[in-house]
Amino acid sequence: MQKALLDDSQPNGIGPGSHDEASYALGYSKHELRRLALQGAFIRNLTEDFLRRAGLARGMQVLDLGSGVGDVSLIAGQLVGPSGAVLGVDRSIEAIETAEKRVTEAGQCHWVRFAAAELDDFDPDKKFDAIIGRLILMYLPDPATTLRRLADHLRPGGILAFQEMAMPSVRSVPDGSEFRRCRRWILETFERGGFEVDMGPKLHTAFLEAGLSAPQMIAAGRVEAGPQSFVYEYVAETLRSLLPLMERLGIAWAEEVQPDTLADRLRAEATGNSACIMPPPLVGAWTRLEVPLNEK
Ligand SMILES: C[S@@+](CC[C@H](N)C(=O)[O-])C[C@H]1O[C@@H](n2cnc3c(N)ncnc32)[C@H](O)[C@@H]1O
């Protein structure tokens, strides 16, 4: 079922600028929009726990950076409820259209909205109680500068809360040759594409460089095993989205990756070895802005 859902690689419309996999490793295919929603379901609980811990609560006004197809905005929308509001920002117009449909289906369209913008040009005319994001800072050339600039839009006492991956910590125990190749392809493509594979542990430094106080931090991850797990599709479909950049960088080619059979190969290897797969942990960091940064 998941494979059928993902079986479409048509490019979609991109928002306020022209972007390709050079500026966003996973690209903007319809397949990627569906993969994002499946990933969102896979890690939903980890993000909900994190946002509760960070202090998101009823009635808050929240800004969600790099909102994609709306998964984090939907969680925030549930936590703040109709007396609050969530604004998701993303550069992809099609991602936003999908996100809008999803919040309507979830009955949250009166208080969860979206705007198409490049984060570095985004200049909201209001203040927020919380600025949040998941899997966005790793794509920005200078995350600390973006955090610092957007923190000006936080009310005193407002929350900054971000969740990012520690990608090199992905493991299979015991290891397997198919899994090892996938791990290498994914890490090398992100790294050579210029994206930060270890943004999770680097959140501490990014917050400090932004002039924020040292964040509280926590890591959370799924631990997967057995033939029913979604983890094999997760790895295979991530590679399918990365393929255009991977080929351009000369890291691997479709003939070698064989994305159509990859999930089944990974499943057969893992179940044959009774392996346990630990996808990359999500590292969460949060802090409160007690004094506006321009008064520090
Ligand atoms: C990996 S997705 C994460 C989406 C969502 N936060 C989630 O966790 O499901 C990253 C999103 O950030 C957006 N993005 C990346 N760089 C951006 C930028 N400079 N300005 C606006 N959006 C950006 C992409 O379009 C993409 O939708």
UniProtKB/TrEMBL annotation:
Organism of this sequence: Aquamicrobium terrae
Protein name from the UniProt record: Ubiquinone/menaquinone biosynthesis C-methylase UbiE
Iron-sulfur among keywords: no
Keywords per UniProt: Ubiquinone
Tree of life domain: Bacteria
Domain Methyltransferase: 58-166
Keyword Transport: no
InterPro entries: Methyltranfer_dom, SAM-dependent_MTases_sf
Pfam families the UniProt entry points to: Methyltransf_31
